[in-house]
Write a structure and sequence with these properties.
The protein is of the alpha/beta class. Helices cover 35% and strands 13% of the residues. A five-stranded mixed beta sheet has the order 3-2-1-4-5. The longest helix has 15 residues. The radius of gyration is 26 Å and the shape is globular.
């Protein structure tokens, strides 16, 4: 009579499946941290907008900036925008890709020729394109970097206004692949030399670059 071969797991081969599940759970538990912990770690790397010096809110000095991106028809082509809160003086740079490296490089170019005394703080939204390496960005642009809270665009009102002015030239749906750096420079120059009511009809260029105040006198 032929002997039956005994299964290595006894009379219950279905235990194989259970053991695989147990092993999978054990492997999952060995992963470093949970998603919540990872989010907490990322949050700990950034400074929130409500921790900025009070002078930023009052527009009491030149050198506090806000930034964001404007999205074109192709969501991978954008404009990186930055504006100084007190003067309304702004910068615009075309982005060929949406990445932390591209954003950091664009912002470094924007502020390369801005005097250090006119670079104090930079406030951005919570967009992932800037990454979470704010300390690295701070070193590259020479400013303390702060973040607005998610979905709180009104916290960066100066930048929202600046982007709205830019949209007059590049409406929603514009294909940014069809515009040139020269087009961007013309728009930037136009807006920086446009008189503003809140500046007593001085231009952002006059306030930021020439140091004029509401009376027309040069500020020290």
């Amino acid at each position: 009579m032929k002997a039956h071969r005994r299964h290595p797991l006894g009379e219950a081969p279905e235990l194989k499946t259970q053991l695989r599940r147990i092993g999978a759970k054990g492997k999952y538990r060995r992963k470093r941290g949970t998603k919540k912990r990872e989010q907490d770690r990322d949050e700990g790397k950034i400074k929130r907008i409500d921790t900025r010096p009070p002078v930023v809110e009052t527009r009491g000095r030149i050198g506090d900036w806000e930034g964001d991106t404007i999205i074109g028809k192709d969501k991978l082509k954008r404009l990186a925008t930055s504006v100084e809160r007190k003067s309304g003086y702004g910068r615009i740079t075309r982005l060929g890709a949406v990445s932390m490296a591209a954003m950091h490089e664009a912002l470094e170019r924007q502020f390369r020729d801005i005097p250090k005394k006119k670079r104090h703080t930079y406030t951005y939204d919570s967009g992932t394109e800037l990454g979470q390496e704010d300390a690295m960005l701070e070193r590259r642009i020479g400013m303390a970097v702060y973040r607005a809270y998610p979905y709180h665009s009104w916290e960066r009102g100066s930048n929202e206004n600046w982007n709205g002015l830019i949209r007059d030239f590049f409406p929603k749906g514009t294909d940014f692949a069809t515009i040139t750096d020269e087009d961007v420079r013309r728009v930037e120059k136009n807006l920086n030399h446009r008189p503003r009511k809140r500046l007593d009809y001085l231009t952002p260029h006059e306030v930021f670059v020439l140091g004029k105040g509401p009376t027309g006198a040069v500020q020290t």
